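Researcher: Last one for today. Full complex below.
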Amino acid sequence: MNGSPDSLTSPSDDGTLARLRLRLGQAAETEGLLDVAYTTVDSPVGPLLLAATPKGLVRVAFAVEGHDRVLETLAHRISPRVLRAPGRLDAAARELDEYFARRRQAFDLPLDLSLSGGFRQLVQRHLPEISYGQTRSYGQIAALVGNPKAVRAVGTACATNPLPLVVPCHRVLRADGTPGGYAGGPEAKLTLLNLEATR
Amino acid sequence: MSMPPFEIVVAQHGGTVLRVCRVLLGRQDAEDAWSETFLAALRAYPDLPGTANVEAWLVTIAHRKAIDVLRARRRQPVPVGEIPEAPTALGVPGASDGELWQAVAALPGKQRQAVAYHYVAGLPYADIAAITGGTADAARRAAADGLANLRKHYPGATTEGAP
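Model: Here's the assembly. Have a good evening.
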């Protein structure tokens, strides 16, 4: 019962619906029905989609990946119970803000790595060991995970990293020092490398 | 078969369901019915067959939630959720004042439902019959009688909001 006198005299479906949708996200969280919560935030590398399951952050996506398509994939791979519910992403959004403001060098967030399996997940688990401002080659990461010949597979693991930025695949470069590919595009990768190089 | 994210369902049908709830219940109770409807829909969504008509499914849930609200209202010794007497514009398409709304509120339940489901949600009479019980012909008559009643009483009809 939120029928304030104001809403009676100047009704707006858009405003009402926005409020109801926010409330739905909160109720879904309370009822344990929010399998995937998401929000979008602005950043120096463009708008970012952040999505989380009850276990933790499950997806960070760049605009070039197509946020609608990413949400469809999450609905398909995890659960169709996907709602915009920024509350669950508050900590992730705050830590990313701090990272882009150069006030944070490592992320301290619960992660849900269930979108990756096997070797890819193994590689992604090890990527946070490359510290802020450092870089490694694909070959070095292959050696790090105990499979020095798996250079190409490391490249695939980086390319399919569901949690870019937070799992720092941007710190993995080609052996000749050129940046190599990136889900957010080569410019985004350079932006991040430059950001971390400036201290 | 891959289902769209539920957020898409809310975006596509949230407005229609809100207008249906308003016609069924009035403005005050409509928001709670909307919330109950979409929460129940979210719960059941993963099991919805890919071939289902999503809007008819949502209206069916809203229908049940509205009945719950009306029953609860009847049990309450002091009537609450009455239609405000001040003119209001309530998302009925084409309506910009409260008089049409008050005329809608004065309709008998079956006519109100038929008007909501046919003229607001755009459902065919066979679907409405499946929701309300009875036949498609009965649903058609209820919608036609409801519309005739509205035309007779609007504008200028003032009445209390109790269904």
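The longest helix of chain B spans residues 54-75. Chain B touches chain A at residues 2-8, 10, 14-15, 18-19, 27-28, 31-32, 34-35, 38-39, 42-43, 45-46, 81, 84, 86, 88-91 (CB under 8 Å).
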